[in-house]
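Researcher: Sequence recovery benchmark, item below. Answer with residues only.
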């Protein structure tokens, strides 16, 4: 099926194969590089699930470990195969997905074949799993020594009591010591089913050929997807403050506001747009509050804002270096309460909405970012290009209602990394 978005001068072709694999082609005529991403709706939060009648509570970090091991094949390493074609491959694991991708200027079909083959054909042995364990242990030690990662993990620990998002994506050295080839095969069967996956190509390619290759290489039968368990939810945050001590010159802080999950049937893309708008109005780098706090030297250029959707949850995260984290938190909570009560100035709302629209629009000319946004939207049953129409449905009252939820008692937490 071809969908045209005339207002954006963009189009896309989509198809769902008989085995459930969703394919999207985002044409970019005149672009020299083509980007392809094959992703599964399986991330670090999907650690507990029921599959084929059995309950699994897997060690933290299993999704990330599986990502590392997927590049191994009986006839060699996929990275070496990509190196021979001149492609640039990589992969990532987030809270909610695992994705494998490459970009290339030529030999696209050859590279796509490599991608499809290694992702759908797992190959794990005791020896190669043990070897990878050492590599991932080094990665874990590295991220645990990174202040902005630790303050991020701490924010989720404060927000949630028992949601698996509390746990660092790569797990710990202790948790990954329990990962076996058999467990990796189980997770692959449970979540690397074509019906739980999507392939997005952005650039210049033959859509029909992409579909033929995917149909030929992906499994003909798609097993049922594992049923996930995320624990019970509470409206209040788990801890008001989470503190760590590390070798830093200035404290790092992150303030989190706990939001309600997206109700069934509501557009996750629309909620994401409202959330992005809210954090930018609250303390984005062109907001009035940011200017005040920057002038007082309470925050710097590294201060960042984000709105995140996770299964059974949502939250706003705002943070960076600060000589007085408590003062930053107080200012953010006070401004949230004011916006919830008084609403948003019309001029400020329009300026921020136009800026966010422009940012989303510019993303269409960055194939890797565009394709990643499309994959996330496909998993939510939407398409990224729908954002243009959704913007017309977002009003200042929608953002004010979000601030009202954040301003309720016990809805905020602060993670701090203090100097030793």
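Model:
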């Amino acid at each position: 099926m071809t969908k045209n978005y005339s207002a954006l001068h963009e189009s896309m072709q989509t198809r769902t194969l008989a085995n459930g694999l969703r394919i999207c082609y985002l044409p970019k005529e005149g672009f020299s590089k083509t980007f392809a991403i094959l992703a599964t709706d399986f991330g670090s939060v999907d650690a507990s699930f029921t599959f084929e009648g059995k309950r699994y509570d897997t060690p933290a970090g299993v999704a990330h470990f599986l990502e590392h091991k997927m590049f191994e094949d009986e006839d060699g390493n996929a990275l070496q195969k990509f190196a021979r074609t001149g492609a640039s491959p990589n992969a990532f694991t987030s809270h909610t997905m695992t994705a494998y991708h490459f970009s290339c200027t030529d030999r696209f079909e050859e590279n796509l074949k490599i991608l499809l083959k290694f992702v759908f054909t797992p190959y794990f042995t005791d020896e190669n799993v043990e070897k990878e364990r050492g590599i991932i242990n080094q990665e874990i030690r590295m991220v645990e020594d990174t202040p902005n990662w630790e303050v991020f993990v701490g924010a989720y620990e404060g927000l949630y009591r028992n949601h698996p998002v509390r746990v660092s994506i790569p797990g710990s050295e202790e948790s990954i010591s329990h990962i076996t080839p058999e467990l990796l095969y189980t997770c692959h069967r449970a979540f690397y089913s074509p019906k739980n996956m999507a392939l997005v190509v952005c650039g210049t390619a033959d859509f029909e050929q992409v579909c033929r290759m995917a149909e030929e290489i992906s499994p003909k039968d798609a097993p049922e997807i594992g049923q996930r368990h995320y624990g019970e939810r509470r409206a209040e945050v788990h801890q008001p403050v989470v503190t760590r001590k590390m070798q830093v010159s200035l404290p790092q802080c992150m303030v989190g506001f706990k939001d309600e999950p997206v109700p069934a049937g509501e557009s996750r893309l629309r909620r994401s747009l409202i959330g992005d708008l809210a954090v930018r109005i609250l303390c984005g780098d062109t907001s009035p509050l940011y200017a005040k706090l920057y002038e007082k030297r309470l925050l710097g250029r590294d201060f960042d804002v984000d709105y995140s959707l996770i299964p059974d949850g949502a939250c706003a995260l705002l943070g960076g270096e600060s000589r007085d984290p408590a003062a930053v938190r107080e200012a953010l909570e006070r401004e949230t309460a004011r916006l919830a009560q008084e609403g948003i100035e019309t001029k400020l709302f329009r300026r921020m909405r136009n800026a966010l629209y422009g940012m989303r629009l510019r993303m269409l000319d960055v194939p890797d970012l565009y394709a990643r946004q499309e994959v996330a939207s496909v998993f939510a049953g939407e398409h990224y290009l729908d954002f243009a129409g959704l913007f017309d449905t977002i009003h200042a009252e929608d953002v004010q209602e979000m601030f009202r939820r954040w301003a309720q008692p016990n809805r905020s937490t602060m993670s701090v990394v203090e100097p030793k």
